[in-house]
Amino acid sequence: MKIPETFGGNPLPRRLRNTLLSVLFCGGLFVAWYQVASQTPIPPDTHVTYQQQDRFRLDIDASGQVILADQTGVYRYKISSLALRRILRTFHRVQWFDRNILAYGDARSQCVLSLTEGYRKAAIRYNCETQASEILMPVQSLEITTRFRRVLQGDKPTLRDFKVTGDTGRSF
């Protein structure tokens, strides 16, 4: 018995078929990466702190709980584990634990950025105006994933989206 080549219809053009297969293959790779990334545990002692003295303090723990404090009050909200992994990946990309902590500022510097992970801790005190990429990249990652500057400004959509609660004089 001979099997027909078209199976009762016209075959897909070669270019369309190759495009579809490529898209499906890339989609499968993305799903596999997402599964692996979400299965990797975050160490329970993970803690990220970013502080600008006399302005605000941002704390994130291993569960994704964010505590943001300024002169007007304290805000509490939660970020996803994928957002926390993105922050940690940025710290790892700049090799945070291998940095010379004395190279960026002195005891009078106004900003402090610290990471505790897997029983290792590194805190760098630096001048807030620094343009060093190894400092700016983690700060930008924190800003993007937690949107802490928008929360401090009282941006209503951000407060609603993150379900921010707090003991402030502001109304949400």
Please, could you describe this protein's structure?
There is one protein chain. This protein is α+β, with helices and mostly antiparallel strands and 172 residues long. It has 5 helices and 7 strands; from the N terminus they run αββββαββαααβ. A 7-stranded antiparallel sheet has the order 6-5-1-2-3-4-7. The chain is globular and about 75 Å long. The model has no long low-confidence stretch (mean pLDDT 86).
For the structure shown, list the relevant keywords.
about 170 residues, alpha+beta, seven-stranded antiparallel sheet
Write down how many β-strands occur, each being a DSSP E stretch of 2 or more residues.
7
The largest sheet, given as strand count, sense and whether it forms a barrel, is: 7 strands, antiparallel
User: How many helix segments?
Assistant: 5
What integer value in Å does the Rg equal?
A: 23 Å
Compressed to H and E, one letter per element, the order equals HEEEEHEEHHHE
Helix content, binned percent = 25-40%
Uncertain ranges: none
Mean pLDDT: 86
Give the CA-based shape: globular
Alpha-carbon distance between the two ends? 73 Å
Give the DSSP E fraction (strand runs of 2 or more residues).
15-25%
Brief sketch in words of this structure:
With 172 residues, the protein is α+β, with helices and mostly antiparallel strands.
Set out the fold topology.
Blueprint: H1 14-39, E1 47-52, E2 56-61, E3 65-70, E4 73-78, H2 81-93, E5 111-117, E6 120-126, H3 133-146, H4 148-153, H5 156-161, E7 165-166
Antiparallel strand pairs: 1-2, 1-5, 2-3, 3-4, 4-7, 5-6
Helix pairs in contact: 2-3
